[in-house]
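Budget justification, computational time. The allocation requested in the original proposal was used primarily to generate structure tokens for proteins on the priority list. As evidence of use, we reproduce two of the resulting records. The first is shown immediately below.
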Amino acid sequence: MIRRILAAAVALAALLTVPSAAPTVSRPLTVSTDKGEVAGSAAGGVGRYLGIPYAAPPVGDRRWQPPAPAAEWPGVRSAHDPGARCVQTATGDGPGTSEDCLYLNVYAPERRTQRPLPVLFWIHGGGFMSGSGDLYDGSQLARTNNIVVVTINYRLGVFGFLDLPGLSARGAGNYGLLDQTAALRWTQRNIAAFGGDPGRVTLSGESAGGQSVCSLLASPPARGLFDRAIIQSGGCPSLTPAQARVRGRSVATAAGCRDSATAVSCLRAKRPDDVLAAGRDFGGILNGPLPVSGVPELPVAPGVAVRTGRSADVPLLIGANRDETRKWSPPFANATRAQYERVIRQHYGPHAGGVLARYPYGARPGRYKAAYALSAVWTDSSVFYGMGGCQYQRLAGRFASQQPRTYFYEFGDRDTPSPGPVPPGFAAGASHATELAYLWPSMAQKPLTPEQRKLSRTMVRHWGAFVRDADPTTRGQVAWPSYRSGRLMSLLPGDSSKTVSAKAYAAQHQCSFWNGIDYDWLTTDPAPLADALRVRGTP
């Protein structure tokens, strides 16, 4: 029995190890960057370098300015703890918040081959309103795949995406996006010192991070800073400068800075908490901040860039979750049939009859019957800025038409631990962000089951293979074909992951119906749906 157990352990280790004929070397935990030395710490065979500044603190007159270079520091800087998170409403446990927040974290195998290692560069989600790089411990991805992982902070909310007349010609409305670009430039200059290969950087992100990836694919300043990309549950939305300035003026007015000639200087003089309070309506599911297009750092809207072939032509791994929008539907618990139908008519207009025929009230019993029906409608129609469902499939197809190494997936574990609170009796399904715990154990709210841990190992290895080889297929796993083949990967618990046809995905999400609808009004004018969400639909 012991021999069989040992043999199985050896076989598993062989599967999880990236073979290399090159000798391994132990890397020092004090590393020289272009601004000074940093001292990290080791845990589980991974060196961790936390809280490294990649840009100057955007405080005082630097509030709402493009990121400036970080200052040099004398001696050796401790990199044992993450830097402050960018200003946001709620952060939970961890470091506090501050405007002085432009820090990143590096996770690198403590022992590596003498060849430089590929790099995964991660942009967190949170609706451009919350989140931080320190929430994502990259140790598992680094250790399993022998890669270097970088996670970053960037300015959020009104601090990162405000646009007003009088702000800098470069960056207005896109300071958070320019922060991400500055962190990519830092990676190009410094990652070799941590064992990484600046010529093999995978730009990746989820939710707002995924939307950022799509924007950076269309951003001239970001060209050449990465050579492949991963988009998880993020579409390609943006605002026009006019739309962004309407939101910016509302923030200035709320802060008491009503004179347009002095609004910028007035806002810069405000305390961070006062600015945050003035921007309380700046965020939300469908009325929150977004990158601004039609400006130098994003001259073409990201979605237009994809459609017209003006997006960076790099290998892409893209996917979404089976029940993408369900996490936002519990407020509609106990909604009556009349209320459900009113909401559908309110924001699907002339197509409401077709929607109600395909998504009837009460298809699932219980107090959440309206919530389940609405979430299926929202997911399949991709109404939340193109996340999930049919428009997401179309986005993947557009990428694949230009880049043969495009790989599409749908995460389908419908019994996954939710990343947030779940009402009693509500089945969150494979909702938005539920896949994160399978790649980043620090995001797990509760332990995964044995079958879910198998899926986690599968996903970690697929992601690692893509970072290494620009192809997620890896030894011992189901082959993952390019989406040009008409097939995508269905990620399921245990050993059940399999490829399915694009037609099967389309049938599952009723795409023959949704693809016949004009998508512009569904995604660029979200006000009707936002109003419905504020009403909540409850008696």
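The second record produced under the same allocation is shown here.
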Amino acid sequence: MRKILVCCGTGCLANDSYKVYEKFIDLLLNTDIEIEPSIKPTGCNGLCEKGPVVKILPDDISYFKVSENDVEEIINKTILNGEIIERLLYFDTNSKKRIVSHKDASFYKHQHKIALRNIGETDPNSIEDYIERDGFKALKKTLTSMSSEEIIKEVELSGLRGRGGAGFPTGSKWRSCANYNNNPKYVVCNGDEGDPGAFMDRSIMEGDPFTVIEGMIICAFAVDSNKGYLYIRDEYELARKNMQKAINSAKEQGYLGNNILKSGYDFDLEIVRGGGAFVCGESSALMASIEGNVGEPRAKYIRSVEKGLWNKPTVLNNVETWANIPPIILNGADWFKNIGTDNNSGTKVFSLVGKVKNTGLVEIPMGTTLRELIYSIGGGIIKDRSFKAAQTGGPSGGCIPKEFLDISLNFDSLSNIGSMMGSGGVIVMDDTTCMVDLAKYYMEFLSEESCGKCTTCREGIKMMLNILNNITEGNADLEDLNLLEQLSETIMSASLCGLGKTAPNPVITTLKYFRDEYIDHIENKKCTAGVCKNLTTYFISEEECIGCGLCERKCPVNAITGNSKEPHLINDTICIKCGTCYQICPTDSIKIGGAKNEN
């Protein structure tokens, strides 16, 4: 039977993909057309920028940016007559060709999907779809033919490290918890994804909730736990709904609850809604929140595997980590370990965003280079501008400059250059990004999200933010750079939790790799990227201006004047420094000057 898969992930839903799905239902299932294909809403297909996405199987045809108005044409031409609609095919930015199957697109063919194996292929609300793709086979295997020791050993041998950021060996965590005889024990899923630009865990919970449930049950059986919690941020409404539907379906089918698969083993799951605090992504703060307390971290001289939730042994992993468990149990540790690199086995899911042509959700083997991610998969920088940096690890991570474009993306290599893997957000920047402003943005974010428990974090981040504000406004001196470094060292050494200890990373890495920009802001009162308005002026090069008038027509405040085919002028007293002229000039004759432009 033909399948029509309509992406109904958050990105596509924002572009009315559900109306596309309903239109297919209306035109195919509620009419007398003889063909009766299976029409399914799926999770995120990854290429979010090109949604809504419609895939037609077994023809293996993929259409992008599909609107409700395109559905009738797809039915008449493709479904009924096998014709391909060229304008809806994906245009590959690398090969410069239209691609019929999404599998042949550069964005997809370099990927290796494990955690995302079902997303975009199944209806997330259908347990039958999940079972059809080997769902719950790993659970059956563990309950019927594996001991707790064998399960934990398999996870240890796989080399799986926690995908939430720290990269702690998953099997070691499970073993530590299993060794404590202090019941009840708890299993927790961290679905409180708070990094700006990150949507990996969200997409898994929305698109394949059953795999998270299966992974958690396997762990619970191995460590002798009968209760689990899914801590999901309140803003993730679709993720919460799909996870709850999956829990209900799993209970109805005997995969969750009492006497699972008639094995005599009981395990239940409950969803806890997070309050939107970034600090609750930290394990001890998250558990405090589940307990009904203020989400503040505690000292970790006693680990959560010994005293976690309600002071009982607790295993906490993030969504992506849980999604890797069923395929590891089903296929074996050696299979997983042969993917990736030494000490960094398997794959990693990234959300690729920023100044890159193909933004979206990506899963690649550990060890793939940053260059491959940005250029082979991401299609390169928008408008083919020059790559400047990439921020990995969210606010707690660091900036990676262009000299490290060929760095292997794994926990250890990123840590060695002052960044971190984090949960997997990658923000790509071009030459129009001001690195001082970027550091200021992250300090603003962290200042607001600090729980305030530690003086060093609460006050130190504010002090760093004040200094960065002064630099971007032209009111700083070079001594402020030394003060930033001293504050960074103090905050990192004296803060209690991971938020405080890693908060200075964006400042440290931008100072290390882009110090000249800080100096330019301070000494020359100039923001080369044209972002800091107090340190920016725009002027037009008389030699390069062709007098096309485009900048004059687009200027929102009429600050540009000139005759046709003659050099134009910018009136500094009127200019609001929005940068529109700079971005649209066809000859690059708009130039950026400092606060006191001498041109």
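A brief technical remark on that second record: Residues 216 and 483 are 46 Å apart (CA to CA).
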